[in-house]
Structure formats: structure tokens, C-alpha cells
Write a structure and sequence with these properties.
two-stranded antiparallel ribbon, two-stranded antiparallel sheet, 16 helices, single chain, 3 domains, mainly alpha
């Protein structure tokens, strides 16, 4: 007798049964087999794949050709693998990337070069170069790095609403860092900078920390009589005071009086250094606001770019930068060393030419273009620091 293979699917357990007119299995065996199958398929920790190979004519033949694959699920799959070296490495890289953006890396590079170039000004001859010179430069550099991080933190805390419009990529504005984390970073860096300068025992470095933090606090903190960045003239005074006077003079005096144990003097090289940075930092103060007009308007931050217009302020900045390179060129020409005249003279001419060439291609309606120009002036400042250090 020909058997008809019949399938019936139960929606809950996806179990398949076959019946035929082939030799019958006893009722007791059938009940045991059904119970055994149900218990097997109800195990929660297995994934099952079912496959029936067609071709058997009897219940026993069809049942034998079921293939059941059981894969044990690891109980650890749902738990985070905190000890995974790759995961740990990725977390560290991610944190370093966030911290890199948080610290304004272009300012950190400028601070490092300013420290080195200012520390070279007191050197009068090759014999002055010694391990104590490098230690002295490091003593000045580490506290200033901490101050720069502190200033970045304070600025981002009080510029939070502005940065969400002008600089949404910054860690605090983007939510990559919390307010609590930023406050902890700021407080730690401020305390460490004072502690290190006190341990070193150099009075110029102590005044550097006091003056730098005080001026930038006045610039950024939103409190009565503070927040000078809201007023363009006062904002420019803050920037010029730090970059043109506090940094180069305190670093120079630290090396001159504390490291080399020489009397306080103000040589011609330092004078040209201060003149160069006076014009250049004034241009930096004005050009900083050119890309940020939109956010400054919304938050009622008065800037020269809003008052006079981006284009007019831009060309004022270009004029100030060119004047700065002119001061450095004048210092190079007045040097008594021929090789200094050639190297520093040609170097400043090249930098001034690059600035002028790039300035002519800036699109004031494109924020990326004006932002490019702002970063360009920082990049031109880096080699300028080396040229200033050579003037004698």
C-alpha cells in the first residue's frame, strides 16, 4: 500500500510529524518519542536547524533523516569584553584624539616654539649651550603647557553655547566630554602649574603663571567686570599682553636670571621679538573672529568683524601681519652677523610672500576659507619663531 506523507506544523515549537500507512509504531513508543523531541527542542541555550531529507516512505525512515544541529551559545557573548586588548587600545586612541582636539593643538605647538625661541635669546656664544639650558627650557615649558590646557578648558566652558554654532566639533560642545570632566581637567592643570613653578623656584616662571592665568580668566569668564572678549578692544589687549609681553619676557628672564645667573637686561633681540609679536598677536586677535561671525551675533559678542565687516577686518589683519614680518626683517638687517642677515632676512620675506599670496584667494562667504586663513597664520608663526631666535 502506498503511503501518503503528511506534514503538520505547530506554530509554537516548529515540530513536524509524519504519518503513513506503513507498519505502525506502538502507542507507548510514539508517546516516548514525542516527549523526547519536545524536551530536546525546548532547550533555551541551543540554536536548532532542522532538515528533513525527503525520500523515505515510512515514518521510521523519515525520522532517521532529520538532521538536528545544536550550537551552544556562550554565556559570555552578552557581557562586555573589558579585557580585550584591541578594545582597550581603541579606547585609549579615542581618548587621545578627543584630548588632542580639546587642547587646541595649534596653540600648544606655538607655545612650545615660543618657549624654545625665547629661551635662546640670552645665549651669546656656543659655550652657553649646556644641559642646564635644556633643563631650564623644560622647566618653562611644562607649566606653560598646563596653563594652555587650563585656558582651553575655561574658554570652552564659558563659550559652550557659542561653540555649538561656531565650533561644534570641540569635545565639550559635541558632548564627547562632560562639564564635570572639563572642570576636573581645568582645576588639576591650574594647581599643577602653580605647584611646578613654585618647586622650580624661578620668579619669572611664577609671574608667568600668575599673569597668564589672570589675563585669560578676565578674557573668558562670564562674571561682572570680566568676559573681556565681548569687547573687541579689551579682547585685543588680552591677546597682545600674553603673546607679545608675558610669554617672551618671562621666558627670557627665566633663562637669563635663573638658569644663566646673569643680571636683568633687555637686549635688541628681545625688543624686536616683542615688536614682531605685538603686530602679529594684534592680527591674531582680530582674525580669530572672522570665521565666527554667525555664532557671535547670536550670542551678542561684539567684534570688529561684526562692526566693520569681515572683508575690511581681514585686510587690516593682513596689513598687521606684513608689518610684523617687516619688523623681523628690520631686526635681521640691523644684525652685525652677515649670515643672520641672509637667513632671517630671506626667511621673513618668504613668509610675508606666502601670506600675501594666500590672502588674495580667500572667499569671505565661505567659512571654511576664512577658517583656513586663520590656521595659516598659526602655521606661518612656527618658522617665524625660529627666525626670531637667530636675531643678534
Amino acid at each position: 500500500m502506498r503511503g501518503n506523507l503528511r506534514w503538520s506544523e505547530h506554530s509554537t515549537n516548529n515540530l513536524y510529524y509524519a504519518s503513513s500507512s506503513a507498519p505502525k509504531v506502538s502507542q507507548q513508543e510514539r508517546k516516548f518519542q514525542i516527549k523526547s523531541n519536545a524536551m530536546r527542542f525546548q532547550q533555551p541555550s541551543f540554536n536548532h536547524d532542522y532538515k528533513c531529507m525527503k525520500g523515505g516512505s515510512t515514518y521510521q525512515e523519515c525520522d532517521k533523516k532529520y538532521v538536528v544541529k545544536a550550537v551552544m551559545k556562550s554565556s559570555f557573548e552578552s557581557e562586555p569584553n573589558a579585557l580585550n586588548p584591541k578594545k582597550t587600545s581603541d579606547s585609549i586612541k579615542n581618548f587621545l584624539d578627543i584630548f588632542y582636539k580639546f587642547c587646541y593643538p595649534y596653540a600648544m605647538i606655538a607655545i612650545a616654539l615660543c618657549t624654545i625661541s625665547s629661551s635662546m635669546l640670552p645665549l651669546e656664544k656656543l659655550s652657553d649651550i649646556s644641559p642646564s639650558i635644556f633643563i631650564g627650557a623644560l622647566q618653562a615649558l611644562v607649566p606653560q603647557f598646563l596653563i594652555t590646557i587650563y585656558v582651553s578648558a575655561v574658554n570652552q566652558i564659558f563659550d559652550f553655547e557659542i561653540d555649538k554654532i561656531n565650533k561644534p566639533y570641540l569635545p565639550l560642545a559635541s558632548g564627547q566630554l562632560s562639564f564635570t570632566t572639563v572642570v576636573i581637567i581645568a582645576t588639576s592643570c591650574l594647581i599643577l602649574s602653580f605647584l611646578l613653578s613654585w618647586v622650580v623656584g624661578s620668579w619669572p616662571l611664577t609671574w608667568n603663571v600668575i599673569l597668564s592665568t589672570s589675563i585669560w580668566n578676565v578674557y573668558s569668564i562670564n562674571a561682572p567686570l570680566l568676559r573681556w572678549k565681548r569687547h573687541p578692544v579689551l579682547a585685543a589687549i588680552c591677546t597682545i599682553s600674553v603673546w607679545a609681553f608675558v610669554l617672551p619676557i618671562t621666558f627670557f628672564l627665566h633663562m637669563q636670571t635663573f638658569v644663566l645667573k646673569r643680571p636683568v637686561v633687555f637686549p635688541r633681540s628681545l625688543v624686536f621679538y616683542v615688536l614682531f609679536m605685538s603686530f602679529y598677536s594684534m592680527g591674531m586677535a582680530l582674525s580669530k573672529d572672522i570665521p565666527d561671525v554667525e555664532g557671535d551675533k547670536i550670542n551678542e559678542i561684539d567684534t570688529f568683524s561684526i562692526r566693520l565687516g569681515q572683508k575690511q577686518v581681514f585686510w587690516i589683519c593682513v596689513f598687521l601681519f606684513e608689518m610684523a614680518f617687516g619688523m623681523a626683517l628690520l631686526g635681521a638687517v640691523s644684525s652685525s652677523f652677515f649670515w643672520i642677515k641672509i637667513v632671517t632676512g630671506l626667511g621673513n620675506i618668504v613668509l610675508a610672500s606666502i601670506l600675501w599670496h594666500q590672502a588674495k584667494s580667500i572667499d569671505f562667504n565661505n567659512k571654511a576659507s576664512t577658517g583656513f586663513f586663520y590656521m595659516l597664520i598659526w602655521k606661518l608663526l612656527y618658522p617665524a619663531y625660529f627666525l626670531l631666535a637667530l636675531i643678534r
